[in-house]
UniProtKB/TrEMBL annotation:
The organism's taxonomic lineage, starting at the top: Bacteria, Pseudomonadati, Bacteroidota, Flavobacteriia, Flavobacteriales
Classification via InterPro entries: Rbsml_bL25/Gln-tRNA_synth_N, Ribosomal_bL25/Gln-tRNA_synth, Ribosomal_bL25_b-dom, Ribosomal_bL25_C, Ribosomal_bL25_long, Ribosomal_L25_dom, Ribosomal_uL5_bac-type
Keyword Ribosomal protein among UniProt keywords: yes
Family statement drawn from the similarity comment of this UniProt entry: Belongs to the bacterial ribosomal protein bL25 family. CTC subfamily.
Database matches in SUPFAM superfamilies: Ribosomal protein L25-like
Record protein name field: Large ribosomal subunit protein bL25
Amino acid sequence: MKSITIKGSERESVGKSATKALRNAGMIPCVLYGGNQTVHFAAEEGAFKNLIYTPNAHTVVIDLGSKKFEAVLQDIQQHPVTDKILHIDFYQLFDDKEVTMEVPVKVVGTSKGVLAGGVLRLNQRKLKVKALPKDLPDFVEADITPLEMGNKLYVTKLETKNFKLLHPDNTVVAQVKISRAAMKAAQEAAKAAKAPAKGKKK
């Protein structure tokens, strides 16, 4: 999995007034959990754009000058109206310790149902995986080739190599729904089959 480096500085004061001053200065207050000690730090808002505003998944190197930590994004708190980032939580990575994170779903193949006029619906754009840091996948591949019209692809049908999927077995990843045009054509064909044949007179 690709990694992004975020440069920041450790912060001493974590009270409301100090946090507000940070935000006013264009900085984002952050917390790193999972290690021996919780680390409070701050980084410029622009440092997070390649981590947050992307469909891809990344691990993170948090560079605080004298200290560096490998981590994954755990949670983002955003303003309910403006979507402005208010706070970010990270979780520290260790080579021998499994970690949980969300990764994108990558659709591959061509569905028979779609070729027949159906519409592909992706129910899950991201899936939660658990693995050692070295085994974290960039994405989970969803092969839709076998899907006929009306079929569903369940999470149990996905290939998992050195990682676990943390979803119930009945989770639908993708499905091929009957399109309106296909449904209308089927209804018209059914009506035509029921209609009495014309031109037959005794």
